[in-house]
Write a structure and sequence with these properties.
By secondary structure, the protein is an alpha+beta fold. The protein has helices at residues 3-45, 63-66, and strands at residues 71-78, 92-99.
């Protein structure tokens, strides 16, 4: 009785099976990520747009003047608003920074689910 050939066939079959399971898990994860993205887009679509920024009627500020000034944030603290929750844990606490003209800012959250 030759078991060597049978063991080899079983090992190759198991390796193929495990590779297929791994591929299936990867595909399921990607589908879940895409569905979360679609859900987030639908949430953003239902947001009420903000009104126009209105200044005083005699204001002589042009749009170009904002491009020449720094935007300064001092002692900024932010928290997520959870309806019905008394959680007061801050996401940002006493943050200070300045954005120079032409500078870009990127805010990154640990979980994209927390952003919507």
């Amino acid at each position: 009785m030759n078991l060597g050939g049978s063991v080899g066939v079983v090992m190759v079959s198991l390796k193929t099976l495990l590779a297929n399971i791994q591929f299936g898990m990867l595909q399921a994860s990607q589908v879940e990520n895409q569905m979360t993205s679609v859900e987030r887009i639908l949430d953003y679509k239902s947001l009420v747009p903000e009104g126009r920024l209105e200044g005083s009627s005699n204001s002589n500020i042009s749009k170009d003047s904002f491009r020449k000034k720094n935007v300064i944030f001092e002692n900024v603290s932010l928290k997520y608003a959870n309806e019905g929750s008394s959680d007061t844990k801050l996401a940002l606490k006493d943050v200070n920074f300045t954005i120079a003209p032409g500078q870009r800012v990127f805010l990154h959250a640990l979980s994209f689910l927390a952003l919507h």
